[in-house]
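Task 17 of the worksheet. Students: predict the tertiary structure of the chain below and write it out as structure tokens. Keep your answer in the requested format; marks are given for formatting as well as content.
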Amino acid sequence: MTAHLFAAWFTEYLKCTVQTYCSDKNIPFKIVLLTDDTSGNPRVLIELYKAIHMIFIAANTTFIL
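Model answer:
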């Protein structure tokens, strides 16, 4: 996945979906996203959304989990 595709999915789908869910359930909007540290996961998203925390694991170690 490219950084552009990840950012589009993140902002246009994930963020909106979780925000709507939290609003419907009357709970605070927060996301913790665990992802591998590849070039397709742009770190700039961390600074754009303060309610979303991204945790990066080492590249090519997802199979261990």
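Marker's comment: The two ends are 19 Å apart (CA to CA). DSSP finds two helices and two strands in the chain.
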